[in-house]
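During the reporting period the student researcher (J.K.) took over the structure-prediction task from the postdoctoral fellow and processed the backlog of single-chain submissions. One of the processed entries is reproduced below for the supervisory committee.
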Amino acid sequence: MPGRDKDSFINPEYFKEDFSVDAFLVKLTQDVIDSSKQQGLTTQGGRPITSEESARATIDRVQKLIQRFIQAEYEISKLGHDVAAKLVEVQQSANEDETDYKAEVRTLERVSERIKGGIRDIDARATRISQTATRVGDRLQTAEGLRLRCLEAQELISHLQAFSCHSAGEDFSKLPAIFTNDATLAEAAAVSRRLVQLAGEVAAAQQRSKAASSSGAPRAAAAKPGKAGGIGSVEHTLKVLEAYCNWLENRVVARFDAAVAEGNLRLQTQSVAIMIELDKERSIAQRWVASRPAFLAFSPEMLDDWVRRASRQPPLPPPGALKQQQQDAEAAAVAAGEPGAGSLSRSASGADPSKPPQQQPHYVEPALPEEYDIVVRQAKALSGLYKEVHASVKDDVAEAAQVFSEPGLVLEMFMSRLLEQNVQAALERLLLPSGTGMAALAASTNAIAAATAAPGADRTSNAANLTLRERARERASSIAASFSGAPTGSAGSGSAGGVAAAGGSAGGVAGSGGSFSGGGAPPAALQRQHLRLLAEAYSKTQRLALNLERVVRGVAQVDVLSMAEGLWPAFMGSYPGQELSWLAAAYQEEVQLLDSPELNLNFCLKLMAWNAEATARALKLSAPPQAPRNCRMLFHHLVAAAAAPGGGAAAAAGGSGASSEGNGSGGGAGAAAAGAAPMAHPGCLLEHLAKHIIGGVEFSLELCSVGGPASLGGLLAKMGLGGVISRASAQQVAAAFVGGKVRKALEAAHAATQVVAVLQSHYSSTVAPAVSGSVAELSAASSALLALIRAAEDSITAVLRKSVDTFMTQMERALTSEQRRSDFTPRDDALSFDKPTAACLLGTALLAALRDAAGATLEGPNRKHFLTEVSRRSYQLLLAHMTRYTYSPTGALKWKKDVNEYAEVLASFGAPSASDDMGQLLQLVNVLVVAPDSLLGLVNGSLRMAHRDALRFVALREDFRTAKVDGKTLLQLFSGEGMEGQLGQQR
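J.K. obtained the following structure tokens:
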């Protein structure tokens, strides 16, 4: 840009960076404005300037500014032209540079493309070279492999030729050194096995070739008859090779046996390696397993002696002494505040709300001293035997890990033989009927049963009780058949259909034939002892298997638990058939010991305790998929109804009908039973409870029947009271009647309620957790429980209804027989208002006795509803009783005294409607008491009765036909005649 003139006002630097128009104008005009400010408003003489002078000065300043702006415009225009010229010059230079740059870029791009093309050519050539090298390498490897195979084949052919030329015999010293040198026996074993395979293949190929050529050229096949089988033939070579392999195997086995005897692990390891090369690993493993001390020590004689020592019975106390010891221990436990055998504690539902809730009633089995329990002794002996097995196995496993490079096979064989030869042999002697352990178990059970039996115990029951039981069984069978939800025909291998029922043989328990010789002992006790021993043996065997598996863990993977499970089908049999058989037999034996068929809570608690014991064993002895089904069968189990008489709930003892859940076939009988309705198995808990509850209900209902020596009339006649009844004698008769008839029924209802409550608790704590693994089994068990609860509730309702009916019938008869018409029309010399009538004394005594009996037996809603119903029907009975007699004014007061007595007793019932009903009855009695003139006010006022309804009670007045009110008789007064006049007078 050309240089700026000296007089120029415009500096190009103004337009750089932070350019501002205001600042630019200030710089242009600042000197002009500053000079005008310096002149001021006065002249040099100090005289103020005039307006004309001021205007002239302003015009001068404006002229200067105009000139300044014109000059600036000119300079700016010139400066713009200079800048534009410079810009054009710079732009031309940039265009030239850009053209040169683009030309260079295009040149570089052409060069880059040529370079990339060259690189691609190099990559393609390298790829072709690499592929060629790979093919060459593969061919070289193939050639090397073929070379090695040829060398190996050449070596094998030379060895094969040596064997082919060797004469038959045991002298192999002429063979190459590799086959006779002790240092190369492992290599000799591998080579000889290859030679045997090769000779076998050649022989097979010759056979195929001969078979193919024999059809086309039979003569050629017979042209060389003498060459087959001679030295140099394939057959001869194969024969010599097999002889050598046998010789080598015998030699290695002899060395292995000597090494085992000496405890030389190095030599054993070498022998095992040679046998592995000979493909004889299983053979040498069996040889090693057979040499273990664990098998040499367990002989049949040792096991028999072990069982005898484990089953030795200590001397028992005299008969009855052991039972007395149990009772003393129970009494001591009760005195210490602990529940004893068969002890009962009330449930929380019947307790005082102010007292802390108590636990549900439960049954505790009398404990047998441990020194007399043969199951405990045999289990301890089995545990000791298993400890010896476990201790001996540790060293053998460690030795196997050193001798065998891969000890999995030998340890699996070792554990399998250990379980089969040692463990199974011990279990057979303990659990099978043919074993010495079961004979000792039966003898011990007999001895314990004799020692615990009370002297003179009577196991028989009277014929009436048996008749009631049979009747209850029939009704219980129909109820049990209605239990829904049991999945009949479900899959499963264990069938309980063939197990023995009550009193039958326990042969089905063994699981592998045979029968127990009870020797007079109760079959249920023997079966229970066997099941206890079975569970103990199973637990200890599983613990042994787990310990053995832990020993081999880290050395090899051997599933010892599965091996141990494989031992038990021979001992389990048709489980849980054994449990059902025991429960059925135990139930029948216990029923025979009951004094009467009335409902017994302690007996039901015992049944539930047995079921809990069996359920715990079923969870232990059953496979996890089968455990819910087996536990449900113990709680409720339906089987096909037996075709023969006596089937059903009781199930024929020792019957052979197939269970609906089994997989066996029952022949023609089974086919006939298949169409019948399913019945509950006699061993399941719900069947037992249904029988007992229905039997108790039947018994209590028969006790409630009207009549007999325990009826109210019979008691009055027996006590010879005649017509003279005092309060004390009335209470005595009422207590005897209620205690002999009604109280038994109420106790049965209360016991049934308790049984249902305890059963629900038992189901929640024991059964539901056991069957919760299967939705179907849980649904079946809950459905069966609900069916039994409904049946029990219906039975309880029937008992309570029957009790009310019996009581009200007897009370009505008592009131009718003891109430005299003269009681309510007494003579003046026989007036006594302070004493109720004899019928009232008897009636109130009956109500009070019933109240006390209900309070002592019933609980909760049952007691409330029972007393409410009694109070309601008592009111109806008293109302009907009132209408049977005619009342004089004094007799009405006598009747009012009786009603007050009844009201006082009924008020103690706590029924909400009792006070209202009796209050209404007292108001109604006033109809008999007031004067005739006050009757209308009473009826229309406090009673608010319709006149036609009131007429029924007004007619009971002695003066009904003679009394008049305003010239009208009472009949006319209350029948509607003359009512309009009477109402007008009242208004």
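The committee noted the following: The beta strands are 638-640, 678-680, 964-965, 968-969.
J.K. will present the remaining backlog at the next meeting.
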